Amino acid sequence: MTSETAAPVGPFYDALHANYIVTLGDKLDSPTSYEGAVTEHLRVSGVYWSLAALALLRTEGEVDDLMGLTKPIQAATDGTDENKIRSAIVDWVFQCYDARVGGFGGNCSGENPHDAHLLYTLSALQVLAISNSLDDERLDKDAIANYVSSLQNEDGSFSGDEWGEIDTRFTYIAFSCLALLGKLPLPDWNNSNSTQVVSEEKPIIDTYKAVKYIMSCRNFDGGFGCVPGAESHAGQVFTCVGALSIAQSLHLLEDADLLSWWLAERQCDSGGLNGRPEKQADVCYSWWILSALSILGRVDWINTGKLGQFILNCQDDEDGGIADRPMDMPDVYHTFFGLCGLSLIGQLEKIGNKEGQNYRQIDPVFALPTDVVSRLGLKAQVIRNGGVDVEKRLQLHSILDI
Amino acid sequence: MHGQKRAEYKARLLHPDTRAKLGSKAQQWNHLSEELLKQRRRLFSSPPPLSDIDTRGKANEGNAAAAAPSPEVLLALTEKMLSVNPDPSHLWNIRREMLVYLIQTAPPSAMNTTDDDQEGVDNDSSAKSSILDIEVELKLTAHCLQRNPKSYSAWFHRKWALVYFMNGSTSQQEHWTNMKSILQSELELCVQFLQLDERNFHCWNFRRFVVGLLGSSGGSDVTTTSENDGEVNNDDDEPTTTSAVDNFSGSWSAWMHQIEEEDKEVWMGPQISQNACRAVGMSTGSKDGSSDAIKSTTPLSKRELEKIIMNEWDFSTAKIQDNFSNGSAFHYRSKLLPLVLEFRSSGDSASSPSEAYEAISLARDEWDAILLDAIFTEPDDQTIWFYHRFIVTWARRNTVVVDGADAEVTEEFEGLLYDMVDSIQELIDVEKEDSFEGNTQDRHESKGAKCKWAYLGMHLVLSTLLEFKSNEVDDEDKIELRERTKECLDELMRIDPDRRERYQILESKLYR
């Protein structure tokens, strides 16, 4: 990178953020929490955002101690219930398993898991990955792989569940789930245009067709929409570029720089990034756009110093957490994606060095800490432009030279 | 939390009344949520749900949530909960499950299939029908979407209900007439939602979905279809062997045969899986495989298809003229343009010089009628310039015809490009004078430096002209073009230093 990232101005509230994340779950669990009630259906994703956010700030052991990943811990109390013990998160995740179909629901109510959906299946697997529990004997890898497989349509697209909503988000999720389970067949670009056949069996999904489907969602601005014909959206760009990256198919992106440019033009005067032209900046796009630019090897096409400043300006300096915009109410989703943004532009590392903290890094493809990706041996693909070395964290992936 | 001011939010929560109110709402929700899942489990616990008639019979007498579970009670519960929070997809799932259950166990008289395990259904079934009560679902989802216009699951349920309904009847002519009027009012609903938020991509997707259904809903009006364009009908005279639901997915398959080659630009894909339609037993695709209603419909004539597309084209024009910043409308237009070209140059074979000529003239219309006005009104709006870019590259691609470039076509295109250069230069001059006079208004944060986009537009046009001359020797024209391109990039580096990296790469390519 040629441009020097300017040092951020103002403090980073490490302790406040950690406390915000650690106490959130028990707040939402309270039967009188309105926020808890209206978000109960996506709790598994909420837990993933929390864990992944904390995992960037703390070591694996510390996260387990603070959150109770693999062991029960005492719940943070609001003063009414002194000795409430909360069961291990991993155990709760398995309660959300919908054995009827082989996927995870977003939550459970007593013995009743909510209906499985790809969205929550990936979040659940990501939680297990962070907890180093993917080899837990309760995890029926074949059943989950078959569930993912059953949701692929004839045109290569994926439905979110058996009710049939189609979206490119679900393609990314399908690829990521199968990669985490070690069951993703790769397209065989060298020989026939088909999905690689390993042993004599039929591949569990047709990755080749799935990748072709992704390409049919591309638009004139280089971006991608949720179905063929839909408008480009930065969030959708991440899912499509991420899917191509996991499937080692980035060479299909003709004129990748057109897309990188469109992404770079998402940066607003405030330094923050928006999701589409003429929209307001929002911290979550720090993730959707920077992850895509990282994969495309063009993070230096935006002003990273200004972006870092924007994210820091969105911190809650009283109670911790990061909001969508400065002075707004934080939530765990924006907290995670804000930290990811700081990580992807190298600022989190700089802050850590200054504060004597050894922060972990986020992987832009799998949205997991890089040490987890490395431990699991997950391999995606990133672009190297003109021989310029890719960032260190990306070196665990394979490199496509353009 | 999107758009929630921190100080106000926290202050609100400090108020004991607010806390109490929200607390009781939460408890109510949690209670219903638990109750719903329990009842569903009891209803479907054993054995397979669809033959579990006894449970249902008894349940009809109950009237409270605490009573024995019944599909009706569960439907009421989901309605109550979804009206408050339309996001949880599992609640919509339960609702659909109950709707399908009730329809599939309805008295056989109203069904087109003959299921013999229908005996034992209580006679008090006046409320049940073999067809989905579409109005109820449309009303509920409309209410939910007013609450949250970006709810994926509410939009999806609306699509599902429409598709399920379209497949659910055998009374042909009446059904199609009814369906078409429903679809027309769905387009109206889109108009309303896009008035509230013109960039709501969920709603734009829904509109494309409805248009897809309109295109595959069959030529109901026999006189219209036989009037002319008989060739299209004759081509498809064979009853389609694929099941009905193949067409009712929101894809634009009806228009695909209009395009000679596989043109991905136009393709609007399905939004609801055909596998799913089969899995939940969409009525016409049921056991015996009869789908008379569908087989007897004729495809729309070319004229009818054109009418639908031109209506969409006019809609995008109107939205753009309301506000030049409407990127969603411009995007839609970029997808419609190849189809409009197809209808305009009807009869010519693709990639013929006359079609190429028509494409350039369509591009010129877009420049004259839309873009010129737009760039002088909103010169710093990137939406417009991205569409400008699309028009230039699209026209450029269309200049390539079967036997290489046609001289007349090339000349016409170059003429358009030079006109663009003149107008953009004029714009830059006007804007610079304007800013010199200190005329600064409130600018949206996404605008960037003044004139940046005009320079980017100029750069695009100049480099496209240069590309045309790539095989020629460096004459005076070419040297001047290159100089002007470089000047644009230099200016961009100065006024937009954040993206300097990119401009440097572009400049290095200029002299390669």
Task: Please outline what is shown here.
Chain A has 402 residues and is mostly helical.
What would your notes on this structure say?
The complex is a heterodimer of chains A (402) and B (512). Chain A is globular and about 65 Å long. Chain A is built from 16 helices and ten strands. The mean pLDDT of chain A is 93. In chain A, the strands form five sheets. A two-stranded antiparallel sheet of chain A has the order 1-2. Chain A has a two-stranded antiparallel ribbon with strand order 3-4. In chain A, strands 5-6 form a two-stranded antiparallel sheet. Chain A is mainly α. Chain A has helices at 14-29, 34-38, 43-57, 60-67, 89-95, 118-130, 141-150, 168-180, 207-215, 234-246, 256-264, 284-296, 304-313, 332-344, 347-355, 370-376; strands spanning 73-74, 85-86, 97-98, 103-104, 108-109, 112-113, 187-188, 194-195, 381-384, 398-401. In chain A, helix 1 (14-29) packs antiparallel against helix 3 (43-57). The longest helix of chain B has 30 residues, at 407-436. Mean pLDDT of chain B is 81; it is low at 46-66, 110-127, 220-245 and 283-296. Chain B starts with 5 loop residues before the first helix and ends with a helix. The chains are: A mainly alpha (402), B mainly alpha (512). Chains A and B meet through helix 2 and helix 11 of A and helix 1, helix 2, helix 5, helix 7 and helix 9 of B. Chain A: Belongs to the protein prenyltransferase subunit beta family.
